[in-house]
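Case study 2.
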Amino acid sequence: MNPASSRINRLPAWFRQDIPGAQARQTARIIRLCGVNTVCQQAQCPNIGHCFSKARPAFMILGRSCTRSCRFCAVEKPGVHDLDIIDAEPAKIARAVKDLGLDYVVVTSVTRDDLADGGAEIFSRTIESIHQISKDIRVEVLIPDFGGRLASLECILSAGPFVVAHNMETVRRLYPDLRPQADYQTSLFILEKAKELRPDIFTKSSLMLGFGELESEVIGAMRDLREKGCDILTLGQYLAPTAAHYPVKEFVTVEQFQRYKDIGLSQGFKVVSSGPLLRSSYHADQVKDLVLITRG
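Prediction:
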């Protein structure tokens, strides 16, 4: 039996999804014609069929290769593709946004430690290009940590995103093993400063579960995020992209995800999305109404 098929067959029943239909194929066609990348495709997201069926891709900028080697991530590393910046990315994404008729857009990126600003200018230009279509389009950016550089964060904030997201990904103890080129405190710092510099902008983070973390560690990470003013939290199940990636240590139950949601709301998050299939950008557009209702 194919190893990949074996892994899929062992997934709990709640991971089953419908076969993508015509709308998903149309979304993929527009993405291809516009020449843009999506994290849905590059990271092998299990929700790609559902999100493409709703015409809700999450765009990925700064090329296709990431300079970091997180053990859970399927995005390509240097050597597969070069590290050139594609200056046309902002305009191409704006075209895709217009062709797809989006009113809420998620833009993320690979991490580019080779660039002086980490790619912040391209983020800013992408937001501005989308707003040239309509100022009413809300843009959520999922950003890297920029090595803690405030100038890069300020560049993005000046373009007026609706949500600034930066994913913690895992609990503090597992950072050295899972994210050897990242730093837990630096990630918290970026979220803290985003909220300090622009209190009117919503901040968001995400944790993947199933790496072997303890409940107390997840709750501790939630507490750390709330202390930095984080508004929105997403919790989802980690799925190893290939046998070469970090192995899944546990399939967290639906009941435990609900427990984490209840705990997160009790800690003061405005919105907590928690479930096996949840990812940072999954149903991100539904957050806009909830956060506006709960503002303040």
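The mean pLDDT is 87.
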